[in-house]
Amino acid sequence: MLLKIYIRNYAIIDELTVEFNPHFNIITGETGAGKSIVMGALGLILGKRADSSVLYNTNEKCIVEATFQIKNNTEINKLLLECDLDEIDQVLLVRREIGSNGKSRSFINDTPVTLLTLKGFADKLVDLHQQFDTMELGDNNFQRTVVDALAQHAEVLNDYSKIFTTYTSNKRKLENLVASQQNANKELDYFKYLYTELDEAGFAENEIEELEAEQKLLESAESIKQTLDNISYSFQEGEQPLLQQIKTSIQQLSAVKNVHAGINDLSERLNSVHIELKDIIGEVDSINSNVHMDAGRLEIVNERLNQAYRLLKKHNVSATAELLAIKNNLYEQLQSVLNIEDAIKELEILVNENHLQAGKIAHLISAKRKSITGKFEEDVQALLAKVGMPNARIKVSVTLAKELNAYGTDDIQFLFDANKSNRFEPLEKVASGGELSRLMLSIKSIVATNMQMPTLLFDEIDTGISGDAANQAGNIMRQLAQHHQVISITHQPQIAAKATAHYFVYKQEIDGKIHSRVKLLDTDGRVKAIANMLSGSQHTESAMQIAREMMNN
After folding, report:
1. What percent of the chain has pLDDT over 90?
2. In 309-463, beta strands by DSSP E
């Protein structure tokens, strides 16, 4: 439960501390005094959005700190362990700070936490009903949440959520693969054609470059042979063969090599030239013997090159390696399409298994929901009768959804009949503001009992209620307060009279500035406040007497 709230520099609150009673707390005050501002500050603790516009003094940060008693609260203690946060003497300190730049920071037990973590704790500490929240009654998500809270199958819902998440994830993957396959299939035949063409061409590595070299050789075979023949002839068979001339020169030098030292060296060099020239002539003859003009082979080479050039031009490349790379890439693309087909088959099996598992759990969830609707309808009708709506009835429609969703396979809708007409219509279409307020109070009182929510905050949930209906609403709140802490802002004296603790919000002017203040009223103060609610600020003695009687009753 909420023990205390400290507010500093928020709206028209410069600094304020309020300690709450563990049972039924009522907050009253004139319109604009700051009642809802206190609730707004509490909303910050519960993770509501904040910005710098809430600052009373824009040069200082805003601080809202709440102290909660968490004794025997197993869910909160479990969260503390999960978040690695320390417990402090069975209390939980929740603090929110808003800087002048609008940025906020959150703390739990003086340890910084994310806003998401803060909300996780708040959801298990407080249920906050603010003005206009009655409109939630017409929201299908809210209606489903109510039914699930009463069904008390959180663990089954958690199991379903896990398998449904897996199902949707795999289904999304399957849809993406099918889309990829469809896109690939559009070009698959063309890719097959391109690959087959390259595969049948069967070009080996560097083949085109080697064919071009061979083509040049074949085309130049005659001129090469002619050149080589000329060289060989001039070296060996001409009128003055070069080889023979060098040999003669060596013989001539041999006769005088002993006369001059340099001649011997010159003779050896000529001898080396003679040997090298003979080797060259041998190489010329060897090459000449291997060069042939083969018209048939040239035709084959030309045809092969023409095929190669056509493919090179088609794929806008210039080398064998590039052509082979394109072929390999086409092969990989074709294989990926085949792999997609295999992956699709595997995912289809998995998605069907996930759907079957989720469907089985959803069936259990649906059965549990349906099992509690009758009792819920009876309980709501009984409470509505107490708050002045004896003819009103609610009906919970649980129908099969078109497909599995994040919460099962049910469409849940609250239907309402205010006058026993047996014409049940959706709440948002037929219920008035006052009826919605009384219906919300009835539903929340039932849900709170099942959820064991420690603290319930009601910000003018009694809107549109008066007279005996307001009196009965007060009785419902007081009954709730036997097992829960209830904090309610109200304008109804009948409800204020039921309170265990009555807080009065008022404005005070200090140094030309308006400040919002809160004080806990004693018995006399409560009598005067309730009398004011009955007859206005100029309360009469009769109003004071009625106020005393209302409190005593």
Report:
1. 32
2. 393-405, 408-417, 425-426, 455-459
Q: Which of 294, 311, 338 is the last residue of a domain?
A: 338
Q: What's the rounded Cα separation, in Å, for the pair 357 and 172?
A: 17
Concatenated DSSP letters for 395-429?
EEEEEEEEEEETTEEEEEEEEEESSS-S--EEHHH
Residue type at position 362: A
CB atoms within 10 A of CB 273: 14
pLDDT of 452: 62
pLDDT digits (tens, 9 = 90+) for 452-490: 667 888 877 777 777 888 888 888 889 888 888 999 888
What are the tens digits of pLDDT across the range 332-378? Answer: 888 777 778 888 999 999 999 999 999 999 999 999 999 999 999 99
| Mean pLDDT of the chain, nearest integer | 85
pLDDT surpassing 50 at residue 131: no
Classify residue 202 as left (phi > 0), alpha (psi -120 to 50) or beta: left
Q: Write the single-letter amino acid at 384.
A: L
Q: Please check whether residue 166 lies inside any domain of the structure.
A: no
Q: What is the reported pLDDT for 88?
A: 77
Q: Are residues 117 and 187 in the same domain?
A: no
Cβ distance 184 to 178 under 8 Å? no
Report pLDDT digits (tens) over 142-172: 888 889 989 989 899 999 999 999 999 999 9
pLDDT beyond 70 at 70: yes
CB crowding 138-167: b at 16 or more within 10 Å, else e? beeebbbebbbbbbebeebbebbeebbebb
Residue 221 falls inside a structural domain: yes
**Could you tell me if residue 493 is inside a domain?**
yes
* Residue with token string 């709170």: 448
Residue 111 sits at φ, ψ, to 5 deg, of -105, 130
Three-class DSSP category at 124: coil
Name the nearest CA neighbour of 419 among 375, 384, 461, 468. Answer: 384
Tokens of 128: 């906050």
- Residue 296 included in any domain: yes
Residue 22 is given by DSSP the state: S
Closest by Cα among 541, 549, 553, 547 to 527: 547
- Do 246 and 274 meet the contact criterion of CB atoms below 8 Å apart? yes
At 55, the pLDDT band (50, 70, 90 cuts) reads: confident
Q: How far is CA 252 from CA 169, 245, 263, in A?
A: 100, 11, 10
Query: Can you give the pLDDT at residue 537?
Result: 66
Same domain, 94 and 194: no
| Nearest of 330, 298, 292, 338 to residue 314 by alpha carbon | 330
- Is a pLDDT exceeding 70 seen at residue 418? yes
Which residues make beta-bridge pairs with 425?
A: 416
488 phi and psi angles, rounded to 5 deg: -135, 130
Q: Quote the domain boundaries for residue 272.
A: 182-338
How many domains does the chain fold into?
2
CATH code where residue 26 lies: 3.40.50.300
Tokens standing for residue 524: 């006399």
